Amino acid sequence: MKIAMIGTGYVGLVSGTCFAETGVEVICFDIDQKKVENLRKGIIPIYEPGLEKMVNRNIENNRLSFSTDLANNLKGIQVVFNAVGTPPDEDGSADLKYVLQVAKEVGQKMEDYLVFVTKSTVPIGTAEKVKKTIQIELDKRAENIKFDVVSNPEFLKEGSAVNDFLKPDRIVIGLESKKAEKIMKRLYKPFVLNGHPILFMDIPSAEMTKYAANSMLATKISFMNDIANFCEIVGADITSVRRGIGSDDRIGNKFLYAGTGYGGSCFPKDVQALIKTADENNYSLEILKAVERVNNKQKSVLYNKLYDYFNGNLKDKNIAIWGLSFKPNTDDMREAPSLVLIKKLLNVGAKIKAFDPVAMEEAKSILGNKIQFTENKSDALKDADALLLVTEWNEFRLLNLKEMKQLMRKYVIFDGRNIYEPEEIKNNGFDYFGIGR
Questions:
Q1: Is 28 noted as a catalytic residue in this protein?
Q2: Which of 34, 279, 389, 413 has the smallest C-beta neighbourhood within 10 Å, fewest atoms?
Q3: pTM to 2 decimals?
Q4: pLDDT, tens digit, for every residue of 355-403?
Q5: What domains are there in the chain, each with its CATH number?
Q6: Could you tell me whether strands 372-373 and 64-67 are parallel, antiparallel, or unpaired per DSSP bridges?
Q7: Can you tell me the distance from the alpha carbon of 181 to that of 115, in angstroms, rounded to the nearest whole number?
Q8: CA 292 → CA 90, 131, 158, distances in Å?
Q9: DSSP-assigned letter for residue 153
Q10: Which residues have CB under 8 Å from 213's CB, separation 6+?
């Protein structure tokens, strides 16, 4: 089988590479010539554990290739995956211009039946727009070429995306024809040998499933952050509360960790897009609007604690920040809580030293020389008036408190992910502040 993957961003590159790993011939397309040239050399643009080796292995075995020329490479392609970006517009709605541009180009150049699969996260109703766009181009050419449109949302977690694709919990496919179902079933067969299902459904339901899944997870995060803030007021400990409710099978123990709010490329824009789609259909998703409000507020929680600790006097204070990416095992800085924190600190004249194991270059491209980036976590602590733990990378989990006392000017830790034991920190002469503790 030969397939095309349009877009070599996070979703497209991981998906295309994993398909190639099963023996499928995959051509990945992107309009960025420099990016394609680097990919041909095995230089990947994102940090994702295990991906680089897999890309290189499949390039060497001639199962994975990269090109900028979609128009002249559609011959023999049975399935086209559209994995281009859907960035949010100013009003929060998903911008479909890239999705529809790909559909238009395919309609202009396709020669035989193919399945056009939307992999990008798109609003309910997008499949109809895609179908119409392709058909308009075929009509212009006076071509009577059959095609099917399929919705196949991705459920990849940054930091474990390769494993998520190779061993999925479920595969969701929305379609309208048995022919498309047969092709998609054949393509995904190697990935469901673990017994997990392919869930075939109508297209609007598949489109909704993606948004509903991410919105549910975002809701759990905001709920726990809201409860954590209340725990501080009434003297409860959110870590104990988490264990207490997480042991209930009806609730489960995942996504129950309080922190500084969610970020990344998915949750913020998907929650916004679903809210906007509902508004356009004269329905108000009140719970999700609250989820978004809570999350935006939560991104300031560490700053507020720091501000109170120093009685509002943060000018010229040396602040150490550990962790910049929105979560561990990725270099993704999109909607990262660290950016909100850093902006607030800079606005009041604080001086910042920061370290992240992977996201430093990405952070530098956003922040420039506004803060100091250090070579390691210890350098960030030199003469620090406070340490703020923002991203829970593994190398931050065990503290050398004796060394930290030698490096820091003032002994206080603000634990934005509740990964430390308060009593241990306090018994070693530090002040400690967590979230909901």
A1: no
A2: 34
A3: 0.89
A4: 999 999 999 999 999 999 999 999 999 999 999 999 999 999 999 999 9
A5: 2-202 (3.40.50.720), 299-433 (3.40.50.720)
A6: unpaired
A7: 10
A8: 15, 32, 21
A9: -
A10: 155
